[in-house]
Structures are given as structure tokens and as C-alpha cells.
Design goal:
306 residues, alpha/beta, Spore Coat Polysaccharide Biosynthesis Protein SpsA, Chain A, ten-stranded mixed sheet, 12 strands
């Protein structure tokens, strides 16, 4: 029988964690919660579900998750990445239990189809209905990209398949949390976009259709090769119109309008504005170490070359 370990990163996730653990408790041999010094009941909730709780200081998601893969005492055959605000629905849990033991040896990764629930409404339009993400892989054959934002799992040594069961991203926090989180995300994405141009940090190997999901690889290619080369004052507005009009985002109602404006326009505009601000501050600098130090000082991020 194939066994599964679930790894969850947490910081003050008492609102979501029990729900996430309920979804995987019956199918996971091991559950590891890597906590970043939570001050609420996160650790106590994790222990009630039999999870192994490991404390480790947080730098960014990619480094924290890779640290977990390298240091947690995982013995299961397969590993699943799960965010605390995500839900594995019953049909997906059954599919994983039924199919994992019979997958051929050449299959090393499993994509899941994640839907988005925003303000208690499932977002069905605007290109956000389903995101296909690589979230389960054979132990020893997957790693996470070393990026400050939009990090994906990458597998090697075989092929991937896609499961059809229900999987949802449903954060229960309010819009204040949403905008604060995306403000921080915008800083990190601006750093990644700047690094794409100036190469002051090492970059992970590029996503490929073979090593991750087809959707993730194509979206990354479009963002880096096309979108990031268009002035942000045009690209952000054009992207919103594409999502809201062409991809029928207006059919998601009032909740959809809020989501598509905030995530499809405001966030993308904010990333571009922060990138422009950083570029102006770096005028005259050419040395990678000087650029890295300056960007770290301006953003508060602990940047290093690795």
C-alpha cells in the first residue's frame, strides 16, 4: 500500500487548520505542521489531530517548505503540499486513497484541480474557475522553486497525472487580511520581476510542462515573456478587462467584482508600481551585491544570493 505524508506551513492558522486537517486525517499516514511561532491555538489544534509540529523561523514560503522537505522525518512514499486554508473534499480523499497504490512507477507527480471560494462564493469565471497545481509527488522526486512569490512544486524522473476530485482554496479572513496579504505579495513579486531583469539573485530552473502542471508552466511563460514587458499602467488595466469582460468575470456577481478588481487589477497595478519604485531607487547601481543589499533594505526582505 502506498503511504502519504501531508506537509502544512502555518502561522496563526487556528481559523482554518482544523478544517484542513479534517480533510486529510483519514488518508494521511503522517502529517507535519511547520509552524512559524504562532501565538494562537495553531499548534494545539495540530497536535489534537496527531500532527507532528516542528517550529522553524519563516523567511519565505519556498525556503520554509524546502526546509520541511529536507528536515522533517518523512517516511511516507508520497508527499502532499497543503495550505492551511485549503480543503481536500471527500471525493478527492477517496480518489487519492484508491489511485495512489496503483499508479505506475513512471508517474512521480499528481496535479490537483483547485477551485477558489471568495467571500463564500465560488469564483467560476475570469479564468479563475480551476487552477491545476502539482501538489502530490513521490518522496525524493520533488522540490519547490526558490522564488519569493508564485513558487510551484517541480518533479523529476517521470511524468505527472491529474486527479479530478474536489479541492478548494477558501480563506475565511476578511478583506483587510486579503489586502494586507496581497500588499506583501506585491513586494515579493516585484522583487522576482526585478530579478528577472537584473539577475541579482539565483533563479530556479524554469517550469516545464513535464515537471509541473501544463497550466502553471504556460501561465509562467506568458507572465515572464509577455506581461512583464508591457508597462504596468497599461497591462494591469488590460488584464482586468480581459478577465472581467472577455472571460466573463462579471458573471461572478458582486463578490466576483470585488475579487477581480482587487486581485485582477489593484494587485497587478501594485506589483508594477512597486517594481517601478525599486527601479528608480537602483539608478546607477550595477553590481549584483550592491543591488541585492539595496533591494533588501528597501523591502525589508532578507535577500541572499542563493
Amino acid at each position: 500500500m502506498a503511504s502519504l505524508a501531508v506537509v502544512i506551513l502555518t502561522f496563526n492558522e487556528e481559523l482554518h487548520l482544523a478544517r484542513a486537517l479534517n480533510g486529510v486525517a483519514g488518508m494521511a499516514k503522517e502529517i507535519f505542521v511547520i509552524d512559524s511561532c504562532s501565538s494562537d491555538q495553531t499548534r494545539e489544534i495540530a497536535k489534537r489531530y496527531g500532527a507532528v509540529v516542528i517550529e522553524h523561523p519563516f523567511l519565505n514560503y519556498a525556503k520554509q517548505f524546502q526546509w520541511a522537505l529536507d528536515n522533517a522525518p518523512i517516511t511516507a512514499d508520497w508527499i502532499m503540499r497543503l495550505d492551511a486554508d485549503e480543503i481536500v473534499e471527500a471525493d478527492l480523499a477517496t480518489e487519492i486513497e484508491d489511485k495512489l497504490p496503483i499508479l505506475p512507477n513512471h508517474v512521480v507527480g499528481i496535479n490537483l484541480k483547485r477551485k477558489l471560494v471568495f467571500m463564500n462564493r465560488t469564483i467560476n469565471y475570469g479564468g479563475r474557475r480551476i487552477l491545476v497545481l502539482l501538489r502530490i509527488w513521490r518522496r525524493g522526486q520533488g522540490y519547490i522553486e526558490d522564488r519569493w512569490m508564485d513558487e510551484h512544486m517541480v518533479v523529476h524522473g517521470g511524468s505527472t497525472v491529474t486527479f479530478e476530485g474536489g479541492f478548494a482554496d477558501h480563506n475565511l479572513n476578511n478583506l483587510g487580511f486579503f489586502t494586507d496579504k496581497h500588499n506583501k505579495y506585491a513586494t515579493r513579486e516585484a522583487v522576482d520581476a526585478l530579478n528577472q531583469r537584473l539577475h541579482f539573485l539565483n533563479r530556479s530552473s524554469r517550469l516545464s510542462v513535464e515537471s509541473s502542471s501544463y497550466q502553471a508552466a504556460i501561465k509562467r511563460w506568458i507572465k515572464e515573456r509577455v506581461y512583464n514587458k508591457i508597462p504596468f499602467q497599461f497591462s494591469a488595466f488590460a488584464y482586468f478587462l480581459y478577465r472581467y469582460i472577455v472571460l466573463l468575470g462579471f458573471l461572478d456577481g458582486k463578490e466576483g467584482l470585488i475579487y477581480h478588481v482587487l486581485q485582477g487589477f489593484w494587485y497587478r497595478f501594485l506589483v508594477g508600481a512597486k517594481l517601478e519604485e525599486l527601479r528608480r531607487e537602483l539608478t546607477g547601481l550595477a553590481d549584483s551585491e550592491e543591488i541585492r543589499a539595496k533591494v533588501g533594505s528597501l523591502t525589508g526582505l532578507k535577500l541572499d544570493a542563493s
